[in-house]
TrEMBL record:
Entries under InterPro entries matching the protein: Secre_tail
Protein name (database record): T9SS C-terminal target domain-containing protein
Keyword set, alphabetical order: Signal
Organism: Marixanthomonas ophiurae
Tagged with keyword ATP-binding: no
Organism lineage: Bacteria, Pseudomonadati, Bacteroidota, Flavobacteriia, Flavobacteriales
Length: 636
């Protein structure tokens, strides 16, 4: 019984020793290692919880191994070239301040900062988080030093919580240590508001819906294990955010990245989207995202809702693996850029709201002898540059997709398929036996589209010239083929005036037409004057000759099309009978004047309104490759 009592007493004694608290009672500016400055007397050790009361000002002038520390009230402490090792939870109160000149936090403890930590210059040495220590920041940490801040030598964490602010005020780096990188986790605010140089974060940054604000200078994020998940990224006009991860996998993005870009995000080197995930760029403002060089990889999906500039920084830009880049905004391929889409089966998916501007005399090419694909249901524009832009990957131009070539030459060297529109006043070149199967609309209302080299069209192809008058190139469209032609398909005329019987329109020229399988006659109407044209295939041109003009509504070639109610008070519904793509609805009054014209990517039911005066109206519905139908409706 006595032995048991002795063991119990010793256990209580050991527990009391292990949990003993030491309180600072020293003078302002006193040193940690003075025994008399503590109550109870003696320098704190590994079994002591340290209290630094409000109003105190203490200097950690030596290595300190303690259980924990607490800065209370407005207490102040200075760390000078020494390490503080903790094993339990420590805290810094909301009005307390630590001035950190040099030295380290290490151990296995967790430090929660509610106050202010100032990293201040200290003989060009560095500060560090080491081992398994966690620094939870709910207050403010000011990086004012030009020395390195290290997070490494183990697996430490700087956890910037929702109320936390990291002020990156100097031109320095946050790096790992001894090839062991710690982690910055941000759910708060990382702010670069001072300095005109570069602040680099070269340790893993996990931005979990946090905010990154660059008001001045450059913030460079370089570690390849960085993950940007959601979050707000605001860049002022004097700031730059640079993603610069050379090693693979590169910076990983996931979720929606948004913010106001008055300055740029420079995407320099590798960006990774994991398989089965999507990252969305949803930035506003004039600053835009500049993709300078590097790879987009990882088998996921990146969706661009803003403006993305592809600017060749010398190493090229590449979409690889099974990546999909969805464009619902604007992508500008800038001067002389080489844009690689290949090395796997990647896709650039230019969606109906997307615009792909080919602004240079550059190229979109394969990578590692593997060609990716551009799928276009939006707009691809070639409106700048007088030279050649070369696309040597696969192109699928699907209705309602448009490829508009206004200047220079656009050259297609791989497969080219789809029922979309090819139009403009520039020059196109389909090589390697490509047979065109889409809708060809020469000119720019109207004009001349030139094809360099031999040309072949399939039975699905449509030539769709505008005829607004008798003069070629200025009043009606011409397709000029600088080579031999094999012509199949249909002709769909957009009539813009009333012609005369026997008028002729040379809508296509070629060096030699070796085969012509076009319809013998075609019809088109203007102001409900239906024109019938003979299609004349000559050895070197195609002529449309007017052989008859009659007055009347067009025949309903879409037998399942209905509209209701009729008569109407103005609002009515068009029922197409089934889902169609490439639908155009035009409304004419009794005088043949166009009062509404709208295009739909796809539709089955269309709601319309006539908001003009009561009377008789004609509703013309045109469907790509299916024809058109005109119905009469009465508005009360």
């Amino acid at each position: 019984m006595k032995k048991l009592l002795l063991i119990y007493v010793l256990s209580i004694s050991c527990f009391s020793i292990s949990a003993q608290t030491k309180t600072w009672v020293g003078p302002s500016g006193g040193d940690f290692d003075v025994e008399a400055y503590w109550s109870p007397t003696g320098v704190p050790g590994g079994s002591n919880d340290v209290i630094i009361p409000t109003g105190s000002n203490m200097i950690f002038n030596t290595v300190a191994t303690i259980r924990s520390f607490t800065l209370q009230g407005n207490a102040m402490a200075t760390i000078t070239n020494n390490s503080i090792t903790t094993s339990e939870a420590s805290s810094i109160s909301a009005n307390a301040v630590i001035s950190w000149t040099t030295g380290e936090f290490r151990g296995t403890g967790t430090i929660t900062n509610l106050g202010t930590i100032n990293l201040v210059p200290g003989a060009a040495l560095s500060q560090a988080l080491r081992e398994q220590v966690t620094l939870n920041n709910e207050g403010t940490i000011n990086f004012n030093d030009t020395g390195l801040f290290k997070i490494g030598y183990g697996n430490p964490t700087l956890n910037n919580l929702p109320t936390g602010v990291l002020n990156l005020n100097s031109n320095t780096q946050i790096v790992g240590g001894n090839n062991q990188n710690g982690t910055i986790v941000n759910t708060g605010l990382i702010k670069r508001a001072q300095g005109t140089g570069v602040f680099e974060i070269n340790t893993p940054l996990l931005n979990n819906n946090g905010t990154i604000l660059v008001e001045s200078g450059t913030l460079q994020i370089t570690d390849e294990n960085t993950v940007l998940t959601n979050g707000t990224y605001n860049i002022s006009s004097n700031g730059i955010l640079e993603w610069h991860s050379v090693p693979e996998p590169g910076i990983t993005c996931e979720g929606t990245l948004s913010g106001q870009l008055d300055g740029p995000i420079n995407w320099n080197w590798n960006l990774n989207i994991e398989a089965g995930t999507e990252a969305i760029f949803d930035f506003d403002g004039p600053g835009d995202v500049n993709w300078i060089q590097g790879k987009l990889k990882g088998d996921g999906t990146l969706t661009n809702l803003g403006v993305l500039h592809i600017v060749d920084g010398g190493q090229g830009t590449t979409i690889k693996d099974q990546m999909t880049l969805n464009n619902e905004g604007i992508i500008n391929v800038e001067e002389n850029s080489v844009f690689h889409i290949g090395d796997g089966n990647p896709i650039l998916n230019n969606l109906p709201t997307g615009v792909l501007n080919l602004n240079s005399n550059g190229s979109i090419v394969d990578s590692n002898n593997q060609a990716g694909t551009i799928v276009n249901t939006g707009l691809i524009n070639r409106v700048q540059g007088s030279g050649i832009f070369d696309i040597s990957i696969n192109v699928d131009n699907r209705a309602p997709g448009i490829i508009n070539v206004e200047t220079g030459t656009l050259k297609f060297e791989k497969t080219f398929v789809g029922d979309g529109i090819l139009m403009g006043n520039g020059t196109v070149q389909l090589i390697n036996g490509i047979a065109f199967e889409g809708r060809l609309s020469p000119g720019g209302h109207p004009g001349i589209l030139t094809h360099f080299g031999d040309y072949t069209s399939t039975s699905d192809a449509i030539i769709a010239p505008e005829i607004n008058g008798p003069n070629s190139g200025t009043e009606y469209d011409v397709f000029e083929i600088q080579g031999d032609a094999i012509l199949n398909g249909d002709i769909n005329i957009n009539m813009g005036y009333v012609a005369n019987v026997n008028d002729e329109f040379v809508i296509l020229t070629a060096n030699n037409i070796t085969s012509c399988n076009l319809p013998a006659t075609v019809t088109a109407s203007y102001n409900f004057m239906q024109h019938t044209f003979d299609v004349i295939c000559n050895p070197d041109n195609i002529i449309l000759k007017v052989n008859n003009i009659i007055l009347g509504a067009e025949e309903n070639t879409l037998s399942n099309l209905t509209l209701y109610p009729n008569p109407t008070d103005g609002n009515f519904t068009i029922d197409l009978g089934r889902e169609y793509s490439g639908v155009t609805v035009q409304i004419y009054n009794i005088l043949g004047q166009l009062i509404a014209d709208e295009r739909y990517a796809s539709a089955k039911f269309i709601q319309k309104e006539i908001n003009t005066s009561a009377g008789i109206y004609f509703i013309k519905v045109s469907i790509a490759k299916k024809g058109s139908s005109t119905l009469r409706i009465v508005k009360h």
